[in-house]
Amino acid sequence: MIRGATVADLAAIARVAEATGQRGEWTGADPAYIGHLLRHGRVAVATDDDRTVGFGATRVIAGRAGTVSMLCDLFVDPAQHGRGHGRALLAELWPDPSTPRLTFSSQHPHALPLYTSVGLDAWWPLLYLTGDIRGVRPPAGWTVEPASPDVVGTVEAGWTGLDRAADHHAWSRRPNGRSLVAALGGRPRAAGTAAGEGAGFGLVHLALDPSLPDAQAADSVLAVLAALDSTDGRARVCLPAPHPAVRPLLAAGWRPVDLDVYMATHVDLLDARRSVPSPALA
């Protein structure tokens, strides 16, 4: 059976998440993360004999041509694989096949076939890049200043038309969370939030002024990364492989440690040369 989740399901969702290898902060095992999705997205659970065996979640985000439904999570207890729970969860979360939809698929062998079967195509890899922020040279003319999540949400909404202040508030409440605005010539050109603990610390989400040319789009990411302060001097950022910031980061010694696959009903729901997304919430 598939039904909508409530706060009473947090512990059961965490058990499923842990069974699939998700542990720690800002995963399905973290009640703060699932609680945020319950408040601002949609979460469903699959049950078998009243036992929770899977969960999924969606969140409405801004795409290049309007709002998009993003699949944030879809996990089934490995002992229950092959019984149709994942497909049933997708049918509940994405009932209308005409809705623009996207997700960042893991490399699990069941994931890509399932998503293609419901109309998504695989377009490009999302690279999990990590490196030494001390090796990132701050580009000339850029300033990066702390800002409130509300300010960051307002700046981003001016570019996308969708208020994501609630997401920035949630990210900023994570360990080492901080929201910031990057400006060029005194004008805001990028705004986002960094957060995370240990090896997971880094730039969670950065919105860029869509009018920026490629060189300045790359510089905005470099400016923000150079301004971060981590305990060991290292950070993480997730970038589409075609993003103009990838090349200078690789040249600075940053390396991909993992990747997801961007899957969507249309390739241009996200701009691969401007998006700096959270794998969970874009």
UniProtKB/TrEMBL annotation:
Protein name in the entry: Acetyltransferase (GNAT) domain-containing protein
Keyword flag Lyase: no
Domain N-acetyltransferase: 1-165
CDD domains: NAT_SF
Residue stretches in coiled coil: none
PROSITE patterns named in the record: GNAT
SUPFAM superfamilies named in the record: Acyl-CoA N-acyltransferases (Nat)
InterPro entries from the UniProt entry: Acyl_CoA_acyltransferase, Bact_Acetyltransf, GNAT_dom
UniProt key word Transferase: yes
Gene3D superfamilies given in the database record: 3.40.630.30
Domain of life: Bacteria
Organism field: Micromonospora narathiwatensis
Gene Ontology molecular function, alphabetical: acyltransferase activity, transferring groups other than amino-acyl groups
Swiss-Prot/TrEMBL keywords: Acyltransferase, Transferase
